[in-house]
Design brief:
Layout (H helix, E strand, L loop, with lengths): L3 E7 L7 E7 L7 E10 L2 H8 L6 E2 L3 E8 L12 E5 L9 E5 L3 E3 L6 H6 L1 H14 L6 E4 L5 H12 L3 E6 L5 H7 L3 E4 L1 H4 L11 E6 L3 H9 L1 E9 L13 H5 L3 E4 L7 H11 L8 H4 E4 L4 H9 L6 E5 L3
Parallel strand pairs: 9-10, 9-12, 10-11, 12-13, 13-14, 15-16
Antiparallel strand pairs: 1-2, 1-4, 3-5, 3-7, 3-16, 5-6, 6-8
Helix pairs in contact: 3-4, 3-9
Length: about 325
């Protein structure tokens, strides 16, 4: 195809060199559909990857929602006109048109809008995967760290809908009401968990946790989990290191569960999507996600990388 399309690219050097450019659509190959993108959302992980880009003019982006414009030539995948959500692992989703393998898309449930669908893929699947991993042991009181982020806020919503008592940890005092509206039962300041402690174990507070921070925060969370509880870890905004002991694991049977959604096998990803788009759909997606235009991209990227963002920013390409 020869369409000239707007796309978001990154040059070597980082997020400060991310730009909106124009170019021709790549492909499609016979097993790919062409999707006209209506909205996409941003994840800190893809921004970090863009910052470390080694290839000039690399088109970036993992998540998008849109409508199939051209069905795959080999007959696989949905027909033209089908609304789909995309889970691109090739960093190419931020564009008006994308060519993507049919195995990397899934139909959008009728009750889910394109903007809602764009809010959910990586952050939503990470939240759901975290909850699934920990749910067998999570009990009735769960902690969520980094609760104002995309993964954290989605986990607050889903867990509260499932009837859990959700404790949300955040460093943004002005977000307390927002988190309460999402379903948090109580709010704690992240400072309570960010100071290094000397004791290898502390009084137990939570039956399980969804940790989106890592570092010292994760180490402190592990010390305070009830016997047999699980912590699902998916973030490293607090740093990649983990200074802990084996005591939470061998004396309390605590489980530390690593969560990844970027390289998750596509079949598992599609199965999870079917749940998060239907029976486990967050009830506050209009609060978690907020629309911006391409002109707002620079400011939003800066806020995300600085840890100042709340929920999910969804770029509406029709704006």
């Amino acid at each position: 195809m020869t369409d000239t399309i707007r796309r978001v690219t990154a040059s070597p050097g980082g997020a400060e060199v991310i730009a909106v450019t124009t170019g021709a659509l790549r492909g499609p190959f016979s097993n790919e559909t062409v999707v006209r993108v209506s909205a996409f959302s941003m994840n800190r992980g893809e921004l970090n990857r863009a910052r470390n880009a080694e290839t000039a003019d690399m088109q970036i982006g993992w998540d998008f929602a849109g409508t199939v414009e051209t069905a795959a030539a080999d007959g696989s995948g949905p027909a033209a006109g089908t609304r789909v959500v995309g889970f691109s692992t090739r960093m190419e989703a931020w564009a008006e048109l994308v060519s993507i393998p049919t195995t990397h898309i899934a139909p959008i449930p009728e009750a889910v809008s394109n903007a809602e669908a764009a809010t959910l893929p990586v952050a939503g699947l990470t939240a759901l995967h975290s909850i699934d991993a920990a749910s067998a042991l999570i009990g009735r009181k769960a902690l969520i760290t980094g609760a104002t982020g995309g993964v954290g806020s989605t986990a607050v919503d889903i867990l509260s809908n499932l009837g859990y008592e959700v404790v949300a940890s955040t460093g943004k005092p002005d977000a307390a009401d927002w988190l309460t509206d999402l379903g948090a039962s109580s709010i704690i300041d992240r400072a309570e968990l960010s100071e290094e402690g000397k004791r290898p174990l502390e009084s137990t507070l939570w039956a399980g946790a969804v940790d989106c921070v890592g570092g010292t925060t994760l180490a402190n969370v592990l010390k305070k989990i009830h016997y047999g509880g699980s912590v699902a870890a998916s973030g490293l905004t607090g740093g990649p290191g983990l200074a802990t002991t084996v005591l939470p694991f061998i004396l309390r049977g605590v489980n530390l569960l690593g969560i990844d959604s970027v390289e998750m096998p596509m079949e598992r990803r599609r199965q999870a999507w079917n749940r998060i788009g239907t029976d486990l759909k967050p009830s506050n997606l209009d609060t978690i996600g907020h629309d911006i235009g391409l002109a707002d991209l620079d400011t939003t990227l800066t806020d995300i990388l600085a840890g100042n963002a709340r929920g999910r920013s969804v770029v509406d390409l029709r704006a």
